[in-house]
Batch of 4 targets.
Target 1
Amino acid sequence: MKILGIETSCDETAAAVVADGARILSNKIASQVEIHARYGGIVPEVASRQHILAIIPIIKQALAEANVSWGDINGIAATIGPGLAGSLLVGVNVAKAIALARKLPITGVNHLEGHIYANWLNGRRVHFPLVCLIVSGGHSDLVLMKGHGDYVMLGRTRDDAAGEAFDKAARILGLGYPGGPAIEQAAKKGNASVPLPRAWLKGSGDFSFSGVKTALLRLVEAEKIALSASQGSQLPTRDDAAASFQEAVVEVLVTKTITAAKERRVKQILLAGGVASNGLLRRRLTESSPIPTLVPEPILCTDNAAMIAACGYYRFQAGKVDSLELDVVPTLKADYASGEKPSKD
Ligand code: KG4
Ligand code: ZN
């Protein structure tokens, strides 16, 4: 079964063709990152206009690269939320138009659930029950997954999401946008020598990253970090601060994920979302977890449509076909099942 996946929730226009929820036949992404970098962050109006320009060419490229025609496609999966309303609308309306014209079934996918399904791509073996840490620009969620589409929320961020914290820390340090990759690059040249706090929120699966971000800001304001060469060689450098920040965030994410996985006696740990492309997080989790751990390759961690197609495949398998009334849900909550209630634990 070949699914066309469409993803336009934020600043990437993406289309992919995936066979049987696992085999990637094509995975095309038109990134707007350079356009938004000029503004230091995503400008929603600019994003939706770019999606309109890019969506049809990117779908055509996805079909061509997969070497398939419309007759080979068995269904369409499109992200309905969470995300920017104007961006989501482009993908969902194109998906509905194609579904109508080609008489294809359509299913709406929760973007965060899509991130989780990146772990099924490239034929990897996933075993339930599992704990998944989803760390993206807008979310830091710890989820127990007992089967396809069966989720129990174990924790979420109480303030900044992990990716958001990386982006804000990069801005504080003058490292530019997008912040996650910038911090990771700078950290490679520094030592994690700056003491920064960790919010453990003991007894809870929740996260909090605003404290570590504010602590970093206070140090910069007090000129205790050398952001310019003239500030003297005794102070920790920008690279040291980046390494320390990354260390603090990764330590909390890894420790809390492993604790939750042990408590729930799961068979596997999965990592997902843009922050999962961070090398230190990937390494630390795989090295320190006593439970087998899966991490998608970096290009499948950041926003893409292959993960949406994979998730769509399992939704179709479960009979979750949507009507052409399908609409965007920009504030879709992280119960991961597009409006269905998570099962009670
Ligand atoms: O999943 P994603 O591509 O988009 C959302 O759904 O939000 O995640 C984007 C987030 C951004 O905050 C970005 O800074 C962060 O993921 N990110 C990283 C890295 N690459 C992307 N954070 C840390 N290290 C990275 N290498
Ligand atoms: Zn995402």
Target 2
Amino acid sequence: MTRPAGSSKGSPAPEGERTYLLGGNWKANGTLASVRALIAEFNAAGPIPANAEVVIGAPFIHIPECLSTLRSDIEIAAQNCSLTGMGAYTGETCASQLRDMGVTWVILGHSERREGFGMAGEDSELVAKKTKLAIDEGLKVMFCIGEKKEERENGTTMDVCASQMKPLADILSKEDWAKVSIAYEPVWAIGTGLTATPEMAQDTHSSIRQWVSDNVGADVAAAVRIQYGGSMNGANAAGLLAMADIDGGLIGGSSLKMDFFTCINSVP
Ligand code: PGA
């Protein structure tokens, strides 16, 4: 099936500027019926701004529906992939299978996966290895980092973010970084309605960019996109996206409704 064309975009983003990246993270939400209804609403929404790139992170089982019926100017992400290639790995889905289907992005290292829902979670070494494998298989990666409430309160936010990025900086080549977007998601802001203020988020985004500059290179730091995630919605997106180092969002709850398009249309 051919995907419906999105409404045509306007002029391309000026050269040298980072295109905004708006990711929707549907998590383990939705039935086939609700996904179809949401896709119909998204397909009928107006044009996506020329300086915005939009990706939906769908549950594995809903990826085929998205790939065949969601407007073609929205790319599709998986919310995880395995640390393995194809083979005898029951219950896993690997990057090359995702790529083969037409998936172009994967969200890796989300705090919910790092925490492990009471099971063994994913540590930063593992997330870095998955990221490298996914890139080698042709996927782009939203690489999630972020501190917990007590870490913000005791002033270790950047230590935490740095420790989550270090294994990635060790494993990726400079060219690989063109395939990475960093999603800064303070854990205390995810699904809680407690958004970081634009100033607070900007402060951390700028420190993250500085860290990338110091540990990877100034050119990579200038080009890499840093998305904010954590209770972003149509009411607060414009304030966050107006900040110099906030290059998009990773949006959970609000991506399950038309509010997602309010976020998309909030890009400056
Ligand atoms: P939220 O989720 O927007 O519902 O806070 C964001 C995320 O977990 O990526």
Target 3
Amino acid sequence: MSGDDFRSGFVTMVGRPNVGKSSLVNAICGSKVSIVSDKPQTTRHRVRGVYNRPDAQLVFVDTPGLHKAVTALGERVNATALESLGEADDVDVVCLVLDATTPFGSGDRWVAERVELSRAVVVVNKTDRASREQVLAMLGAAAELAAESYFPVSAKARRGLDELVDHLVARAPFGPPMFPADAVRDVAEDVWVAELVREQLLAVTRDELPYSIATRVSEWEGNRVTVEIVVERESQKGMVIGKQGAVLKQVGERARAQLPAGTYLDLRVKVDKDWQRRPDRVERLGY
Ligand code: GDP
């Protein structure tokens, strides 16, 4: 398919915590998280999911600015001191997600004030659990935002998603896919979390560590995730841990910032001298 009839765009879901942003991305892209095997240089955003169909590709990304702001808000930092989102500028479509089961509140307003509403798609989620009156009340409140469009949906019951996706595709610009289909693979969430830790580790140590460092989730229970960092030599262990655990602490903080609120991340360092030479292990580590 040539560039003339293919649409390809970046979409971000914004909204206060718990409205169902991740559930929506998962429902649209499939329950597995898509990661791009070559680190995308095209965007400053983390790819949360890629939706592919024969005539279009939608790349769902995080809006780090908003995430930071919402976290800071949670920590009661003076919200007015924070700059407006800005980071959403290079995204084609911004979806403002609202929760139909709770009235439009200050958290929703706070986020709404930080997006360009005339271009935003309002998504009223959780219609499966809300009464008709609740859905109508939320749509009424949302109408006052004067957004570009409104979609009542349910990520859980997969209701209204086709209409939403069709609209997002129609809003995406014409152009070739951002990522070739074979560069995108669907991975289980544990592989994604392990990859997230590895990425932050390499970022914090600024490439002092060899890329052979591996990570894997060894336990996942409820909101407690244990990630093992496997190094080849005892000397690398110190680099990973840092002075008084400083490196590990920073890696944990950075990774946690991208995980759902309340996630408890336990990082452990293990020395495994020859994991690279043992295919069974490489396989188990997800490479
Ligand atoms: P996020 O913080 O905005 O990413 O929200 P999540 O996707 O983590 O969802 C928050 C909670 O709402 C989870 O417990 C979800 O299972 C639930 N949830 C998300 N979408 C729906 C929906 O359409 N219907 C119902 N009933 N629950 C939902």
Target 4
Amino acid sequence: MNKNKLTTSWGAPVGDNQHSMTAGSRGPTLIQDVHLLEKLAHFNRERVPERVVHAKGAGAHGYFQVTNDVSKYTKANFLSEVGKRTPLFIRFSTVAGENGSADTVRDPRGFAVKFYTEEGIYDLVGNNTPVFFIRDAIKFPDFIHTQKRDPQTHLKNPTAVWDFWSLSPESLHQIMILMSDRGIPATYRHMNGYGSHTFKWVNAEGEGVWVKYHIKTEQGIKNLAPKVAVEIAGENPDYHTEDLFNSIEEGDFPSWKVSVQIMPLEDANKYRFDPFDVTKVWSHKDYPMIEVGRIVLNRNPENYFAEVEQATFSPGSFVPGIEASPDKMLQGRLFAYADAHRYRVGANHQHLPINRSKSEVRTYQRDGQMRFDDNGGKSPYYEPNSFDGPEESPEHRPSTSVVSGLAESVGFDHHDHYTQPGDLYRLLSDEEQERLIQQIVASMAPVTKDEIKLRQIQHFYKVDPTFGKRIAQGLGIAIFN
Ligand code: NDP
């Protein structure tokens, strides 16, 4: 068959793709035009459900290259020798907006990295901020409801946003970063990425350390002034998506330096903050940055849907040498991400080319919707078996850890939500502080209940009294009689 011949989805040649089959030139369309039926029916099903969060995104392919030997901390094969390169795919995103929303809004940015290692997929599913609004996954659906649309008006609702934040003071640190200049990056290329959570690295001797990832832009941090961002949102809502694609297309490949902070396991109980609390950072002075490697993005997707929309990242996709920590937010995400993809893309989402491991996948999983490979053929489909089916490798058992305590619904055992946001406030220049305050005032002004404003001002006052006073002043609220 001529390779340019149009076919139906079942492979038969199409006789006419421009005219429906009708009963005479002016008569009704015939149901026997099965090519038309198939074309319309498939079109109706072109969308998969959009992600509830991180719906609007852009992605690109590239590589990670090791620049420093960290094998004394981790046996992860892709980090095993200086110079080693591993292909990767990154998806950047905003969080709260829908798939068609503007790129240049004030919002954290997703920074999800998929490493195609020789020992399977490793997903580092981070953000452009080192902390998060909440530290227990049980609060996530409520938090996101406040970021999404009001059920009655279908509008964004600043009262809900600040009500939740003022009643969840652990959010302060992330609020400060979001309202600072870094809340609107100039492009996806001009922002940092962070693993945010604490993870565990384990070396070949089975010794562990706690680790935090920092992915710093080599383009330099650049941000957009709010007024400029609003103008761009009107003129070109896809500004960041376009910038990433065009830069790579023009050969101007964005790059990032990857570093880690390493904490000895025994420090976790002694450190002045809970190192598994994702609303906190580890001071650079206490745990200095150790270089690991470099990320370069050098290839655009050929097809947005196949590569960007269908990409599925899960913080639970670990490889030997990298493990979870007790971070309560991470523990919830270990379930929620893979589950979102099973719902959104399907039970076999990991078989899609963008998600599939480059190393051979050998499981006893079978069947499920859209299982489009040979489904394991006639090979053994249960374990244990006597037919040479794949077997576990005991050397890859995860490291052990001691856990103790009562099984109960319990909060964190410390409540200092103010020191680190205060440190951040005080490291900003006078101009940066002024812009931060202006931004918070503008964001809080539409809140309809004074009780909420007052409660939040008290938190800002505890961060730094001058800061709290200036916000109160900006909102025209007297905090001292
Ligand atoms: P350092 O002075 O060593 O680090 C300060 C950090 O602040 C730098 O990483 C800098 O990033 C970052 N920074 C500067 N402006 C902003 C901003 N508007 N939003 C977010 N980050 C910004 O001090 P410490 O390690 O003791 O941390 C002090 C405070 O800095 C923390 O409480 C935290 O709020 C903030 N911070 C700390 C990080 C950490 O991992 N320790 C990471 C990011 C922020 P850069 O080098 O790119 O300019």
